[in-house]
Amino acid sequence: MSTSASKSLHDVIARNLADVPPSGIRDFFEIVSTMEDVISLGIGEPDFDAPWHIREASIFGLEKGATSYTSNLGLLGLRRAIANYVKKTFSLQYDPQREVLVTVGVSEALDLAIRAICNPGDEIMYHEPCYVSYGPLIQFAHGRPVIVPTTIENEFRVTRDALEERVGPRTKALILNYPNNPTGAALTRNDAKDIADFVSDHDLILITDEIYAELTYHQDHLSPATFPGMRERTIFLHGFSKAWAMTGFRIGYACAPPALTDAMMKIHQYTMLCAPILSQEAAIAALDEPERDIADMKSEYEKRRNFLQNSFGEMGLPCFEPRGAFYAFPSVRETGLSSKAFALRLLEEEKVACVPGTAFGASGEGFVRCAYATALDDLKEAMHRMAAFLDRLRT
Amino acid sequence: MDELLKILKNNALETPDNIAKMLNISTEEVRSRIADYEKRGIIKGYQAIVNEDVLKMDRVTALIEVKVSPEREGGFNHVATRIGKFPEVQSIYLVSGDFDLLLFVVGPDLKEVAFFVSEKLATIDGVHATATHFMLKTYKHHGVLMEAQDEYERLKITP
Ligand SMILES: Cc1ncc(COP(=O)(O)O)c(C=O)c1O
Questions:
Q1: Which of A242, A326, A329 to mutate to test the pocket of ligand 1 (most atoms within 8 A of CB)?
Q2: What mean pLDDT do residues A70-96 have?
């Protein structure tokens, strides 16, 4: 193909897509994947395999011939199990017939939620550092991302003041994610209340991504959707990827009042039709006895979290105490290196991969994300190498 | 079970320093709690999990079902303790079902174990029947699969 032809192909690409910057994670992945023997603290998914009885349910599904489409909303049995679980765990009541939509991961649910409410030019707010998809999904929907930075001073919890500063007449919704990827921050009851008040006072929709809800340490998770009046303006997102270690099953869900669920479902039925049936079968098994599945992994994460936190302390790397998810977010400012330079040098010199904080937004500058969903032996070795790296930097 | 015991059950060689970091307590406290567990007989010892099939050791293990008539005082305890004195016997359990005691016995070869059963075990007062099963291959021992399966590789960096 001639150059002029490929140039014109560039012009063919939708403009709102061209405006989306390339992923910082992707860049880094390309570098890491060329290297051997890297210990990676850069993996945002559990190192555990999904519990065996869940995998077994999926195998059994295959055997009994579960190879068809399901209802667009998802298997009713699964929606019922989800409604039960959400009620029990979050004190939120949803009608499995009309208010629960099974999706291909929280990833799809986020896309549906945003597209369901966003008119071109609408503003959708989210706090940063945050999961990588929020900004791009808003842009794909022709909306305007409004970034609300969070800081270490407030342990990366978004404040009402910061929200008030950036809300405007075109603001339609707020996306919230606590426990947070990449910082490990979680909300207190007061924070959740403040945010709920903010959303109500400005008549916004709340899209709350609570995918890490089960993974909090010494702090109970409280959904902001539980405050009076909030349920009616909230799209509640959750899934099985994290607490159940089921990332590859690609299964999640959205719960919202019928009008919102119908709108999401309109997109879902034409773009996805339904979530894979075997994953739905597995998800039903995951909700059989969720406490049992989660407890062991969670207690393992907690030990690793403590281990990282104490190891960072020992090597003099400031890190606020992660309250949830499986990420620690130490500050590397004191080294004088940018997040990216720190991560690159650590990778080159010690073969330890962590993700530069800036991959999660500009307010991640000065930090790196270290996932402790990594085997303890690897964490030990990584901490060892990181301490040696810091020693060298300091002399 | 206490988290400290869970860690040691999983890896008895874990250093007190690392355990301290995992549990957010001091190294001294880890040491003193381990010492206390040892003193109270909660930790009875530390052993390696050895895959003997790889060593091709000249020895066999048998699982032996034993029917016993319980005694008026002491039930099965007396007989079980007597059986336990033999060094060939690795473990003894009282079980429900068709027989009463389940034994794990090791010996240099089939003949020696068979001899132990007929001459020593079956002749004990109160033992009135035995059934011997020789173990052919170990797949899983103490929660550990003997043949490591390849781990499914995850991407090195994910969001
Ligand atoms: C905050 C957050 N939301 C959503 C997702 C996507 O999850 P899923 O696997 O359910 O699509 C992730 C995965 O890393 C995440 O960290």
A1: A242
A2: 98
Domain B52-141 fold: Alpha-Beta Plaits (3.30.70)
- DSSP assignment string, A104-141: SHHHHHHHHHHHHHPPTT-EEEEEES--TTHHHHHHHT
Sequence ranges of chain B with CATH classification 3.30.70.920 = 52-141
Q: Using a CB-CB distance cutoff of 8 angstroms, which residues of chain A are in contact with residue B26? A: none
Residue (of A252, A313, A245, A318) closest to A46 by Cα position = A245
A136 touches B at CB < 8 Å: no
More confident of the two residues B159 and A150 = A150
Note the pLDDT of residue A49: 94
Cβ(A276) to ligand 1 under 6 A?
no
**Min Cα–Cα distance to chain A from B102, Å:** 29
Cβ contacts of B159 on chain A, cutoff 8 Å: 23, 25, 44, 131-133, 181, 359
Whether the per-residue pLDDT at A280 is higher than 50: the answer is: yes
Taking an 8 Å cut-off on Cβ atoms, the answer to whether B152 and A28 are in contact is no
Vertex A323: Cα angle to A317 and A327 (nearest 5): 60
Please report the pLDDT score of residue A1 as a whole number: 47
State residue A368's pLDDT score: 98
- Residue A118, C-beta contacts closer than 8 angstroms, at least 6 positions apart: A124, A138, A141, A142, A143, A172, A173
Say if CB A75 and CB A253 are below 8 A apart: no
Separation of alpha carbons A112 and A194, rounded Å: 26
B46, B52, B58, B63: CA torsion to nearest 10: 80
CATH number attached to the domain at A3-49+292-394: 3.90.1150.10
Please tell me the distance from the alpha carbon of residue A278 to that of residue A59, in angstroms, as a whole number: 8
The ipTM is 0.84
Domain A52-290 CATH assignment equals 3.40.640.10? yes
Report percent pLDDT > 70 for chain B: 100
pLDDT greater than 70 at residue A195: yes
Q: Is the CB of A177 under 6 A from ligand 1?
A: yes
Percent pLDDT > 90 in chain B is 76
Q: How many CA atoms lie within 13 A of A155 on its CB side?
A: 14
- Taking CB atoms and an 8 Å limit, are A303 and B157 in contact across chains? no
User: CB of B158 within 8 Å of any CB in chain A?
Assistant: yes
Q: Among B22, B154, B157, select the one facing A303 at the smallest CB separation.
A: B22
Q: In what order do the strands lie in the sheet with A327-328?
A: A327-328, A368-371, A355-356
